[in-house]
Structures are given as C-alpha cells and as structure tokens.
Specification:
By secondary structure, the chain is an all-alpha fold. Helices cover about 80% and strands about 0% of the residues. GO terms for molecular function: G protein-coupled receptor activity; olfactory receptor activity.
C-alpha cells in the first residue's frame, strides 16, 4: 500500500511540474497535497492513525453496528435506484430531478467513504488508517459536504421558482442553468477541499495518533496537532459562513417565500404542499444544524462524544433520508418505479 501511494503521488507531482497546462492554482495545491503525503509516508508510515470509532465489544454496540450496516445498505440501494429512475424515465428529465440525481450520487460517495471502513474495522478488530487513507477521507468528505451544501441551496432555488414563479420556470431554470448549478457545486466543493486538506495535513502531529472519531474529520485531527492552529481555524470559520450559513439562509428565505405562496392556494393543494415543505425543512435542519454546530464552534468547545453524535446526522442519517423525502413520496417517481417493474418483470411473464 505504501509503495502504491508513493508511486501515485510521485507520478502526479512529476506530471504537474513538466506539463505547462497543469500550471494552475488547483494543480499547484494538488501537488502540495501529494508532496505532503509523500513526506509523511516516508517518515511516519509506520505510525498510522488509530480511529477509535463508534463501536466497542458490548452488546449495545453490536446492535448499533447492525443498525449502521442496515442504514448503509438502504442508503446505497435508495440512491442508486433514484439515479437509475431519473436516467431511464424521460418524465424525470427535468432540472429538479437532474439536481436530485447529483444529490444521490454525492450521498452514495459520502456514506461509502466512511461506513465501509467502520464495518471493516469492527469485523477485523483493526482500527488503523494510513496517513494517505486519512487524507483521502478528509478530501472526499469535505468535497461532498461542501458540494451538498451548495446543491441543496440550488434545489431550494429550483423549488422557489417552480412554485412562486411557475410561468417563468422554463426561462429561469433551463437545462443549462441546472447543469451550471450542479457543476459549480462540485467544483467549488473540490477547490475548498483541496485548500483545507492541504493545510490540515501540513500540521505536525506530535501527540497521540488516536483520533477519537469514526472517520478522519478536520476538527478531530486538529486536536492531535502540537502547533497553534488558531489561524487555520479562522479559515474554517470563514468557509463555514460560505458553505453553511449562506446556503442555509438561501434555503430558509426560499422556503419562507414558498410557504407564503402555499397559504394562498386552495385547501387541498395547500395541505399537500405544506406536508412536502415540512419534510424538506426537517431534512435540511438535520443536515445543516449538526454541521454548523461542529464546524463553527471554537476547538475548546468540542468534545469527542458530541462530535461523533453530531457527525452521524450529516454523514449517515441524512443520506438515507434524502431519497425518501425528496423523491419517493413524489407521484412521478412512484409512477417511474411502476413502469420499470412492469417493463422489466411483469412483461417478461
């Protein structure tokens, strides 16, 4: 594993240096991450990190492990089915479902970045993770968390236009617009993650290598550093404003406008729309609330148990609820499921 990581990072760094087309800020930061990883792997590959995780050997932990495993399988199945339905059914080829397909893909990647390692550690009894593996977890996690924050704001804007300005919807939410919103969410998430991963991995870890968390997360990693990280923490706070407070404010304002429009509808349509909006806001609060509380508090206010509990919401529970709340309660999605079942199973008989 060490040889593969070293070879891969060496090749990437060499390509960035020799190809002028890769002389951009993004690739400069990528080369810095690769260099940091090689340096740490060369000197500290025998001192891997230890993830203390969520589970112990108690009977309660075994039940909790079974619950997490069930949630993982359910999340992968739900989101994969959602992507399949959107691709196969032409009635779902709309901006809203296009954004939902990206949300489902992010959720699959996010839970797959964390839970399989938890499961493997629990079953094998080994809790170690390499420096490169920890860096990859941080990078992918920050990319997906940041991207999903922006994507949820884009989805709320889509719903706002559809409900409050239905006649202007074809103009304001063209396919190109939804494509730009999705691509922007990914790219900005990646760029933010490159910056934070590079800085987080650059700090020397002089204390214990035991990370009191179930995955490599920046706040938990900073506790292991033996240097002052206050300047970097201020950068995390600024990113929190950009990726958490601003998108959450956009979502809140959008849904306030939507609710104002809903109250002017007839009673039947009003009740259904209120129910849908309520479920949407519950999921949004479950995602943003713990996320904001984790990343926008000073390090001195963090406790391992509290951080792990909060992280479960935005890394495991919310990805499992998104398809149910945003999609499977929708009649168009249910009709698409019915059509696929009929075309692929019933018609064969």
């Amino acid at each position: 594993m060490f040889s593969v990581v070293l070879l891969g990072n060496s090749a990437m760094t060499h390509l960035i240096r020799v190809d002028p087309r890769l002389h951009t800020p993004m690739y400069f930061l990528l080369s810095k991450i690769g260099g940091d990883m090689m340096e740490h792997e060369n000197h500290t590959f025998s001192s891997d990190f230890i993830l203390l995780g969520l589970f112990s050997s108690s009977q309660t932990s075994q039940v909790f492990f079974s619950f997490i495993f069930f949630i993982f399988i359910m999340t992968i199945t739900e989101n994969a089915l959602m992507i399949l339905l959107i691709r196969r059914d032409s009635r779902l080829h709309t901006p809203m479902y296009f954004l939902l397909s990206h949300l489902s893909f992010m959720d699959i990647l996010h839970i797959s970045n964390i839970v399989p390692k938890m499961i493997a550690d629990y079953l094998s009894g080994s809790r170690t993770i390499s420096f490169a593996g920890c860096g990859f977890q941080i990078f992918l996690s920050l990319t997906l968390l940041g991207g999903e924050c922006l994507l949820l704001a884009a989805m709320s804007y889509d719903r706002y236009v559809a409900i409050c300005h239905p006649l202007r919807y074809p103009v304001l939410m063209r396919d190109s617009t939804s494509g730009l919103l999705a691509a922007g969410s990914w790219l900005v998430g990646v760029f933010n993650s490159i910056i934070h991963t590079s800085f987080a991995l650059h700090f020397p870890f002089c204390h214990s290598r035991a990370i009191d968390h179930f995955f490599c997360e920046v706040p938990a990693m900073l506790k292991l550093s033996c240097v002052d990280t206050s300047r970097y923490e201020r950068g995390v706070y600024v990113s929190g404003i950009i990726f958490l407070l601003i998108p959450f404010s956009i979502i809140s304002i959008s849904y306030m406008q939507i609710l104002f429009t809903i109250f002017q509808m007839q009673s039947g349509a009003r009740q259904k729309s209120l129910s849908t909006c309520s479920f949407h806001m519950v999921v949004v609060i479950m995602y943003y609330g713990p996320f904001i509380f984790t990343y926008m508090r000073p390090r001195s206010y963090h406790s391992p148990g509290q951080d792990k509990f909060l992280a479960i919401f935005y890394t495991i529970l919310t990805p499992s609820l998104n398809p149910i709340i945003y999609s499977f309660r929708n009649k168009d999605v249910l009709m698409a499921v019915k059509n696929i079942v009929q075309n692929n199973f019933l018609n064969r008989k």
